[in-house]
Amino acid sequence: MLKPPGAVTVDAPPLRTAWGTEASVPALLTSLRDARSRLTVGPASDGGWQRIGQAPVQALAEQAATEKGAPWPQPLVSHYARYFRDGNRTAYEGLVASRQQRLTRAVVMAAVSGPDSGEGWLDEVIDGAYLLCEQSSWSWAAHDDVFTRSGEVVPDPSRPYLDLGAGEVVAQLAWLDHVLGSQLEKRASGLRKRLRFEAHERVIRPFLDRLDWHWLGLNGDVHNWNPWIHTNIIAAALLLVDDPELQATVIARCIEGLDRFLASIPADGAIDEGFAYWWNGAGRALEGLALLEQAAGLNPDLPVVRALVAFPNSMHVGGSWFLNVADGPARAADSLPWDMLHRWAVRLGDSHAAQLAATFAAVGPEPNPAAGLGRVLTQLGDSKRRYEPSVEQVLSPSWGTWLPSVQIMLARQTPGSTDGLTLAAKGGHNGEHHNHRDVGSVVVAMDGVPLLVDAGQPTYTAQTFGPDRYQIRAMQSAWHSVPAPFGLEQGTGREFAATVLQEPTPDEPTLALGLGAAYGLDHPEQWLRTSILNREAGTVVIDDRWNLQSPPPEGTDDVDITYLAAGTVRLGQDATATITPAGIPTVAGGRGVQLRWKPETAVVLVDEWHLDDPLLGDIWGDKLTRLRFRMPAETRASGAFTLTLEATHEH
Q1: CA–CA distance from 524 to each of 511, 514, 520 (Å)?
Q2: Helix 282-296 vs helix 373-381: crossing angle, to nearest 10
Q3: Which of 39, 236, 404, 424 has the smallest count of CB within 10 Å of its CB?
Q4: Model confidence pLDDT, tens digit, residues 377-419
Q5: 580 CB contacts (<8 Å, ≥6 apart)?
């Protein structure tokens, strides 16, 4: 077992506890024999790819035809260096992504065209693969440690950095070699040898030689990089490592790594990075487990796996909307591998997760190269599977969700349906992965469309993961639906946390939290927030009560409670406001919500956030609106404020 000095010991690691000696190098030497022949994705030489047909690859083929023979995207050292100069990471990463997506399309076209008509596509694959071999770095500039080590801004080939980018490249080369290897050898003898050399030097050797990769989780901090990279290395070891002893050693090390991730998952299966990062964390782990089962016969039916498979459904708000926390958008991306989730859900008998996955897979069956070659090939290899979308809303018939490990409640006015109000409330702490200062925040949806919202993830820059992260508006508590006692921002770290005072139940969907610690106040109960869904009355009630001392030096005299709204906001008479979904992209009409409060309890300040970030604009439209309820002077030290929301009757 890998255990360097200072490594955090994992008690009862799920995989090795279940698999025992089957996960050891000696056992893997036996079980991995002829592993490639057992993978569900087979080589093009067996003829199966030519029977897929044109429909599943039509859009992909059209794009590939426009690219064929044209100059390839060329990321340059100036693009790489730019990140260290001004923080722009898209100039480099965009070109890298374009190159890899073009290569993925070429691989698919070469496979489905067959050996007689695919020679032109083989040349595309050869050129694209060789360009990756010649690319000085497989890592993304934003991750490379070259600048912090040496002050240099160009990649150092002698010290390759093993990150998400390198993992994606090596997996892409591994899958294309697996599918097209015999044809590549005939067309460009020596290429496969070069692929193996680069994979070993840039990925396999650094993985085995170095124990200081942060994503290994040896320090106890395990995040989504762990399963993402380990799963890509599993693919590389299976498909590009020909030495049995080395292959088994790498796979055993990957099992240890995945174990650290799975051991970090709480019993309720919650991912603190949220729904969007589930796909590139838990989802990657599930893909790695599937590969291990196919290649070595290791059974992955474990309680933690069942909990992970259930998580996306528990975050479903309605339609393509999901509860977003941390760096996650509120709407599902187009390139998600719902087929993967469907296979797992069916296998484990989770009918609700299966129906959710089937509905999305049926709507968007076209493979998206942005998902990566392995996911594209797996989806195409499963293209004969038929997904039956649900006519009704795809929701569990239960009241909603309570995930105690992350203190998230999602409650529905109509169990099993998006009709009416949905309330989500979050406690947690501000040391979560991809953290936003959102302790105590609420999201309210009407008929499955969020109207009180969490802005979510803006475009990543150097600032996103640097010391100035919380100068970004989307990360600040000031732009979440939370209080601001004395104008304070919430603090950063695990100690800035909520205390649960009342847990929700199916009959009483109420979450009561003490929020004082999130602001560095002396006691959690100096600020109490109770979020209530009242099904019979058809209302959501957010009740805040506080008992504050004098303002701290960094504070102000103001006590505000903020709510962030999407769509169109109109202030009415007699302490009311309405929020309608007008202006939210992808939403055509629909009911809104009316907000009510006692006029003497607060005055309302309105701030508009005009969205110039393309990621945020794609989700919310032109703007988000912040409503700041400012408390009168006589209630700043001690007081209460209640906001009630109910459906409007406008469509």
Answers
A1: 15, 5, 9
A2: 60
A3: 404
A4: 999 988 667 777 654 445 556 789 999 999 999 999 999 889 9
A5: 451, 567, 568, 570, 590, 591, 592, 648, 650
